[in-house]
Amino acid sequence: MDKEILLRILVLVPVALIAITYHELMHAWVADKLGDPTARQLGRITFNPIHHIDLFGTIIIPILLQIYGNGVLFGYAKPVPVNVHNLRSPRRGMMLVAAAGPGANALLALVSTFLLFIINLVPASPITAFLLNPLRVLFAMSINFNVILMLFNLIPIPPLDGGRILVGLLPEQVGESLARAEPILMLGLIFLIMFDPTGTLNKILWPLMQGIVNFLLNLSGINL
Q: Which residues does the annotation mark as catalytic?
C-alpha cells in the first residue's frame, strides 16, 4: 500500500464516520419531531457513531474501494427504524424523514466548502502548507464523500431515501406497490452497483457527482 492510499484511508475514516453518523442522526431526529419516537428510544439520536455504523458498509467497503477500486467514495450505515404509523402525517412525514439524510450531507458538503475557502485565503508559506495541507485534504474528501452519499441516496429506488420520497409523491396505491417491491428493487440496486450493465452509473450518476464536487472545489478556491 503506497503512502497516498494510506493517507486517503486515514482521512477517509473520520470523514465517513461524520457524514454517515450525521445522515442517520437527522433521519432519527426528524422522525422523532414528526411523532415517531422509535429511533429515539433505540438511542439513534446521537452523534456517537457506534450507534450508527455498520462494520461492513461504513468501514470495510470504503477502505476496499480506496485500495482496490477507482477511488470512488461510498459507504452506508445501519438504517434508522421508522414506524410510519406513528407519524402524524404518514406519507408526508416519511418523505421528510427520508429527505433529512441527504439534506444533512448537503449541509456538510457546503460547510466543508466554506472551511476550505477560508483555509485557501491563508497566505502560502512552507509553515502554512505543512499545517493546512492535511486540512485541505480532509475538507476536499468531505465534499466528495458527502456529495456522493447525498446523490446516491436520492436515487428514486426504495429503500434509498429517494425511493421513499418517490413513494410519497406517487398515488397511494402505486406508492404502496412500489414499497412492497423494496426487497427485489434492493437486489437490483446491488446488481447495478456491482456490474452496471446499462452504464447508468458511469454515464450519468458518477459524472453528475463529480461535476457537483468540482463546482464546490472551485468555489472553495481550488482550481481544477
A: 24
